[in-house]
Specification:
308 residues; mainly alpha
């Protein structure tokens, strides 16, 4: 009858030095204070968005509304300009992210083919724009000649490719076992089939990481709207609309009867509550999406940045 042999070898416990305990304590204190500096201002914006105009105080942080009200959000959803800008931001974020990820993944897969002619030369040429830029004026003239001014595609095409993201994805592709590709090739699979059925499903961490970067970039972008689509009200993004609100509040405290400056006309609302409500609407989609991609984020960026 077999007897179970117990592992009587002593377990070695690492004892932390006094310096390590001090470092850990300082690190925890720093992170707690850092989180407080982020949470408290954000909570103040949330409270302002649910507060009445007369309850807002500019002298201290508001922790709870004196009277809860949804007037600011009601105004946001009644204003056609805000609703239109919201859908434009969603559309550019979804399309821009999907196109960017597909193009970068295809380019990264091509750059992993060791038998590709002039692979190193092409990589070097693609790296040049990452370090050197012609500037804003040549970029504007280029968009004008391409007919992209006041065109929705100006949000999508210029950001459709990034050599930085391509290198991250390429390095992740290098970490995938080559034996799987060889087995698929022996079975008669084409390069397109290998890319779509093997490489892409195995690359979910890096794809999720790049997608998150691109979604945040598209969702928060307002400068290209101001430069290329300023005269087109139908192409105004939510972030640029919020920027205009901030500019109008800074320039003058008076309101007008048209556009975004026509805020504060409702009872219990003023420009500050509208601005707070719009800010929450801008932040909310990213906050809702990030938890679903967080588990892929660290793995994707570490493997994509180190291996290869």
């Amino acid at each position: 009858m077999a007897h179970k042999v117990k592992d009587e070898s002593p377990k070695i416990k690492m004892k932390k030095s006094v310096g390590s305990h001090i470092f850990d304590t300082c690190n925890v204190i720093f992170m707690v204070l850092f989180c407080i500096t982020i949470i408290i201002p954000f909570w103040d914006v949330v409270v302002r968005s649910f507060s009445r105009a007369q309850d807002i105080s500019y002298m201290h942080i508001n922790f709870l509304p004196k009277v809860w009200t949804l007037d600011a959000y009601k105004y946001c959803f009644q204003d056609n300009e805000i609703i239109s800008a919201f859908f434009v931001s969603i559309l550019r974020t979804v399309l821009g992210t999907v196109i960017h990820v597909i193009v970068c993944c295809m380019a990264a897969y091509a750059l992993t083919r060791t038998d590709m002619p002039f692979r190193k030369v092409i990589t070097a040429i693609l790296l040049i724009p990452m370090f050197f830029s012609a500037g804003m004026i040549p970029a504007y003239l280029n968009m004008k000649r391409l007919g992209l001014l006041n065109n929705f595609l100006v949000y999508i095409l210029p950001s459709g490719f990034s050599i930085y993201d391509t290198i991250i994805i390429r390095n992740y592709f290098f970490s995938i076992d080559k034996g799987m590709e060889e087995a698929a090739s022996i079975d008669g699979a084409s390069q397109v089939r290998i890319f779509a059925s093997i490489i892409m499903p195995l690359s979910q961490p890096v794809i999720a990481t790049v997608s998150l970067w691109q979604m945040v970039a598209h969702w928060n972008s307002w400068f290209d709207n101001m430069i290329y689509c300023r005269r087109s009200a139908e192409l105004t993004t939510l972030q640029y609309l919020l920027r205009r609100m901030l500019d109008s509040l800074t320039a003058s405290t008076t309101t007008s009867s048209s556009g975004v400056e026509a805020i504060g006309t409702l009872v219990d609302t003023n420009p500050d509550t509208i601005k707070a409500a719009t800010t929450i609407l801008v932040v909310l989609p990213i906050v809702m999406i990030y938890p679903f991609l967080q588990k892929y984020f660290v793995k994707g960026i570490m493997v994509g940045a180190v291996k290869g």
